[in-house]
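anyone seen this seq b4? input:
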Amino acid sequence: MISENVSLKKYSNYAIGGTARYFCHAEGLHHITHAIAFAKKKNIPLFVLGGGTNVLFSDGGFDGLVVKPDIRFISINTALPETVMVTCGAGVPVHDLLTMCTSEGFSGLEWAGGLPGTLGGAIRGNAGAFGGEMKDSVVSVASFDIAGTSPHIKVRDTDACKFGYRNSIFKDLSGKEIVLAATFVLTRATSPAVRHVINEKIAWRASRQPLEYPNVGSIFKNVAWDLVPAAMQSREDIKRHVKTDPFPVIPAAFLIDKVGLKGVSCGGAMVSQKHPNFIVNACGAEAEDVRGLVALVKAKVMDEFGIALHEEIEYA
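predicted toks r here
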């Protein structure tokens, strides 16, 4: 169940990274429990991996245990007349959840059309797009508290999850809790109607994002309008680009474009010309190539606008 010296490239959308000293595919709670005990016995660090769609692994690898919770189940409760309750394991790909919603005619998650990764990662980061977020439909989340001497399951309602912009209590408790499953409340619709909206979102992503290259999505969070310096808020070119996501923000892509970094490369990594908030693996990039571009983008945007960009991606 626990393998040694596993290449992390095949577990990352970036196709970047060294080897994990130990790696565990955890298909159930008993596997996770065993992995936690193994890491504690060896006194090594632990990293919980979702779909690998939002993480940059180091070129030097991870000198510890990588656990990939691969808990896959979807349970549907249709007892309520107008809504349905859907519970999914953390390892369920978002794509599979949306496929089920399409086939059954369940509405509420259409905004996630084309969203990569697994449910656990989407919950942890409160994934969002097109004005929607995971928190909008979540009723409760089950997690595994591994911080103490006696690991145990916790169940939180939406408020207790402390969802924020691309954040949650599970992100704040990184390394201390592992998301196991989540329950959503969805509404009844028709399969064609749900499919139409999901396909619209998928088509939008395909036309505007550099999906032809290995990538991990948006590198930086969009910037809350309240955090934009007053001098910048008065500029017409900036005011025109304010959007709701789900509150007023300036897109990071706009700022990166304005400082002229589209197409700039470092080693095999490149700031996408199609969507400048994507740094793509254009040609055998290494982690340090990506980090170099991240640092350059942050410095240029700060110099030009006085705005600090913050990464959406995770480092391991």
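The first strand starts at residue 2 and ends at 7. The chain has a mean pLDDT of 96. kinda curious what u guys think
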